[in-house]
Description:
Blueprint (H helix, E strand, L loop, with lengths): L15 H6 L1 H25 L12 H12 L15 H25 L12 H32 L4 H14 L5 H4 L1 H22 L4 H23 L6 H22 L15
Amino acid sequence: MSTTDPVSAPASAVAPGPRRRILWPILLFLVVSAIASPLLAMAQDASRIDPDFLRLTVLSTAVGAAAVALAWRLRLPFPPVTRRGWATPLAGSLVAVGLFALVMLALAAAQHAKWPGADLAKLGGAGLPLFLAAQVVGAGAEEVGWRGLVQPLLELRLPRLAAALVTGALFAVGHVFLLPAVGPGPFALFCVSAVAVSVTLAAFTIGYSPVARVAIATWLHFLTNMATFVLFADGDGSARYFADSAVAGALVALAAWLALRRAFVAAPAPEKMLR
């Protein structure tokens, strides 16, 4: 297949030396994030912050991204910016989350499953704005690392879809703290849904600037979290719930990728190489 194919080809042609060194920032990000996660978990216990309000471990990815930015002094290669404008990703995110919610509700109805929505009244009038702000912070902290750093770097070495799948797999493994609570089977299904979400996020963010990628991904991530929380109170941790989430996520990912794939414009090599 032609190297200019917008889906199968890497975002740019990078010289062999810098291409190899692209993996070092990702490795540093993963190591620092892994170290920060248990430390933030201990901080959560000490602070007594309700994890349903804000799980501090999500900030570990922001810590990892900050470490990479400091180590490379922000001089990292980045895929060329080929897409601009906010209307499509912002409005498209609403459509994607709406489709996800409709599929989840349809599956729940077909299975006679009962996952009651969250009781927002318990948050109180003043608590709701703080809760929403905390959810935006949590989503943004994760996306700074995954869609702002890992996904773009992988695009320089892998076809775009492969970069999205690898990013999703790493993102899923980063939620390993769920494993003891839900068990191996449900966690494996969660990983499928996490990869699907990553593909959807990639479809909406590929080709945008670093700031736009993080902002768009944060918006879509926040909307998805709010949909699952408001409609299902994040589910009951069962295999059936995670299976439905995986099916809905996969359908949305497929729809988003097919709808937006033509916007992935093949571009020349980035102006700055990794030093």
